[in-house]
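User: Predict structure, ligand WT7.
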Amino acid sequence: MSPSPDIHPVDPDVAANARIDRDAYERLYAESVADPERFWGRVGERLEWMRTPTRIKDVDFDARNLHIRWYADGELNASVNCLDRHLEARGDKTALVFEPDDPEHGAQHISYRALHERVCKLANALRSLGVRKGDRVTIYLPMIPEAAVAMLACARVGAIHSVVFGGFAANSIADRVADCESKLIITADEGRRGGRTVPLKANVDAALKLPGTNSVETVLVVRHTGAAVDMQMPRDRWYDAVTKDQPAQCEPERMNAEDPLFILYTSGSTGKPKGVLHTTGGYLVYASYTHELVFDLREDDVYWCTADVGWVTGHSYIVYGPLANGATALMFEGVPNHPDTSRFWQVVDKHQVTIFYTAPTAIRALMRDGDGPVKRTSRSSLRLLGSVGEPINPEAWRWYYEVVGDSRCPVVDTWWQTETGGIMISPLPGATDLKPGSATRPFFGVRPALVDTNGAILEGEAEGNLVILDSWPGQMRTVYGDHQRFIDTYFRTYPGTYFSGDGCRRDADGDYWITGRVDDVINVSGHRIGTAEVESALVSHPKVAEAAVVGFPHDIKGQGIYAYVTLLAGEMSSEELRKELVAHVRSEIGPIATPDHLQWAPGLPKTRSGKIMRRILRKIAENAPDQLGDTSTLADPSVVQSLVDERLGR
Ligand code: WT7
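Assistant: Predicted complex:
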């Protein structure tokens, strides 16, 4: 465990102009953990409050008395902070640049003033449709400006938005709508991705035929591709029709800092996805502050995060963080390889992007195509690169740094989670020496620690499970509708701490290296998929008796999905059935859960008490049958040999 010899010291020019240099980092970090009240009280002043908070931090991580409150007597509105506040000084500044899937369709530039007007009109429309403070609204949209408008309009009227990624199928939409009892859905006729269309409205129609979705009164439909869709009156309304005659001003709802801002569903190791709930004040302070410092934001930056608004990265670092900071943020509807694999860099040149934030999976996929598609473009506007979503392998880091950034732009490898609301461990470009593959240092106020499986805290150079010892303002507050699950998932494993679910190593310099999930969550292309969800989709097929799903190393996706399937007695395995099962998972959950491999399993390795030994299945999937470890507790050891034989013969 020697420290990486590959260290990129802070560039002196970057440090000279940065908000935070090395000394400032050390001083502020020490202050932030010594006196969080004072530190976060001061940082909280960055927002515009309707009532200034006086109670800054009120937290207990003890599971018996768990509570997390920040700025609890403060009042504010998130949309006011993202829009109204900028109108005077930045009214004509571009808030959003929209780059469509098809480059021929032309980009749009939406000023803060124009965005404010669009948000107010939709907010008024939502009110006219009966949406009130605390109501839940599901947003199922492509990466078009209306997605940001919809989120901010919800925030304006105090409705809690739940954005569902456009890659989820009807069942997944229905589960999420049912769990939070959404009153209204905002969708589009279709989405566009890589030259193909996604039938969003049809998916919503299918979802609303499923049980548990009766709460939905209205479906607002954005006309995007112009495709014909089935409009079911009076439930379905055209977005244009309901917004066009609304007033361009809308009184914002006064929200308590601890009132919910949004729910975002994410996969856990067991059961259905959890509704991660974020509140208004602490979340916005944290998203905007991390966005400003990690990206060392300047007034004239053009900032581009390639994530989808359906994930937390899109929430915090396309919408709330950048807009609260008055930045210019680019929204891209497309994919990295359409029309060709030079697209990202063409967009960088076209819009003179200065900060670029993407996921390792995209970097690895583009890297496979060589340097040519990158080198055909200038990229001279770039000054900072970011990575998020999964561990970035040093090889991909170096390609990103050397080829994309011409060895000129620092790379910030940002570790965080849906649950954390914002970046937790990351270099600051003017303060931190970079090491390919390491997320390096904690952000202000973040107290990471490594524990062994007994919960003992490990000091110095060590490897263990990553916990956070104290709260930060952007932390999730509960699992929507299931507070007990919140406590059990995050605060019971290592009492008194927040457990991330990640494994991690700390080197001799004190830098953190995330090693990946230690629970039954698979990180596929930076997206979390619960093994339990894929298993339950598989066993819902009439021919399947049992299924076990594990992750395995995948060159591009980071991890792939490997499914072992046992058929019901009398059912015959076939290539056709394999395809049918893969298609079944896609239609049950969505294309993002597509199994990469599906292996027939006459039996699954189980303990005598019937527990599936996933450790063994992981090793077989990895093609490492010599590392199966102790198999003496298996009820029927012969099962393993047949799985290994089948795997080798594949
Ligand atoms: C999981 C959280 C945070 C926004 C996108 C994903 C992994 C995330 C990194 C990183 C290594 C990372 C972790 C984490 N992860 N960023 N920079 N280095 N691993 O959010 O879907 O909630 O997933 O993604 O395993 O627990 P998410």
